[in-house]
Every structure is written in C-alpha cells, then in structure tokens.
Write a structure and sequence with these properties.
Blueprint: H1 2-22, E1 44-45, H2 59-68, E2 80-81, E3 92-96, H3 110-122, E4 130-134, E5 138-139, H4 147-164, E6 168-172, H5 174-181, H6 185-188, E7 193-195, E8 198-203, H7 206-211, H8 216-227
Parallel strand pairs: 1-7, 3-4, 3-6, 6-8
Antiparallel strand pairs: 2-5, 7-8
Helix pairs in contact: 1-3, 4-5
C-alpha cells in the first residue's frame, strides 16, 4: 500500500512539473516578491441573476433533474446529455461551456482533460478534489446558445454552484464568464470574483490552450490568483 501511495505522489509531482514547464514557469511561486501579509484585495461581485425556475434542496435532486429534465438549454434532436462529475464540497469546481464530441462522457475530456489535470496538479489539486460541470449539459455539435438559453444557463449554474459548495470556482472560457460575471473572458481575467460567495477566477479552457500554448503562462497567473487567500 505504501508503494502505491509513493507512486501516486511521484505521478502527481511529475504532472505538476510538466505543467510548470509548459507554462514557462522557472521560479517557485512568481517572478516578483509577494507580500503575503498584505490585506486581501477586494473582490468584484458578479451581477445578480434570477434563480432557476426549479429550486432543488440538495445536490442529488439537482443532478437527477439535470439527468432527466426535457427542454434544458441545447436539448436538441440528436444531442447527447453529459452530466457533471465530482462530490459536494469539492476543493475546486470547474465550469466549462458545453461538451464537444472529443470529451466523451465528461464535461471536459480527452487531451483537454489531461492538460486540466496537469494544471490542477501544479496548484496541488488532485482530480478527486475536483467537481467538473458544464454551462449546458448537452453535447450538440455546431449549436450556439441563444440569449434566453444563456440567461437560463446562468440561473442553473448559480444554483449548481450553491449546491456543490466548492471552496473555489474556475470559469473556463467566454461562455461561463459571460453567464456568471457578465463579462467576456478578456475582461474577466486578472482579478478575483465572487459567485454564490465562492472565490472565482476566469481563465482559458484547456481546449484553447492546446491550440494556443503561448497562453499557458497567462493561465498560470490565473491559477496563482485563484489560490490567494481571501474571499
């Protein structure tokens, strides 16, 4: 048993090191000294959205609703329903836009998930500590959210976050940033936010980073911001 734990620790360390190399990190924390005793910066509160029409008292009931309710955003003919993964009280919750074919049965899958695992490992987060969900739980190639669907997604996502009760929240890409912060990713990055009382940052979806590796250094700064203290 001890050998298995040691192997797991080595694997986690290797994954974190690989991400640091990819992100161009050559110092332990950051390129400039940090005053760890300074007061935590004031966070930017996200715009208040209307709650979803259906209010669920616990995460189990909410996930059952996601798995069976007809007419949810992006529920089209031929769409594939992809449900969230993880447990209540996760250290970090990931919210992406909506799954693509390569993601399989996960909100984030394939090479994008492998990169996400390395990113999380670099800040000391194991996949077992992570809750992964998508803004819309349907994989519908080529589909786009209408304005009304985006509004509906925002209410559903807020209720989802409130029921998961994560310690931290990462919004991956433009869709989640627009839905929960009212800003595109370019404007939302670089500062911490609060969503349902949870410390939140917005950063690039790992699918984006796979095609634009030059942005990995920016994503690393976002992850450091996420791990700072204060809500």
């Amino acid at each position: 048993m001890g050998g298995d734990q040691a192997n797991n620790d080595h694997a986690a360390a290797a994954a974190a090191l690989q991400w640091w190399i990819e992100a161009g990190v050559d110092v332990a924390v950051s390129e400039s000294p940090r005053d760890w005793l300074k007061a935590a910066p004031m966070l930017v509160a996200a715009p208040v959205e209307a709650p979803p029409a259906v209010v669920h008292e616990d995460l189990s009931a909410f996930r059952h609703w996601l798995s069976s309710e007809p007419g949810l955003p992006l529920d089209r003919a031929g769409a594939r329903r992809v449900l969230p993964h993880g447990a209540e009280g996760a250290e970090v919750m990931l919210l992406s836009d909506f799954p693509v074919t390569d993601d399989g049965e996960q909100p984030i899958g394939g090479e994008a998930w492998a990169l996400m695992v390395r990113m999380l490992g670099a800040i000391g987060m194991a996949t077992e500590q992570t809750y992964s969900a998508s803004l819309a739980c349907f994989s519908t190639p080529g589909a786009k959210l209408s304005a009304s669907e985006m509004e509906n997604c925002a209410g559903i996502a807020r209720r989802h976050v409130a029921l998961v009760k994560p310690k931290r929240l990462i919004l991956l890409g433009d869709g989640p940033a627009m839905a929960l912060l009212g800003e595109k990713l370019a404007q939302a990055r670089g500062r911490a936010h609060k969503v349902e009382g949870v410390r939140t940052i917005a950063t690039f979806h790992p699918r984006w980073l796979l095609t634009r590796p030059g942005d990995k250094g920016l994503a690393w700064r976002d992850l450091l911001l996420l791990m700072e203290e204060g809500i």
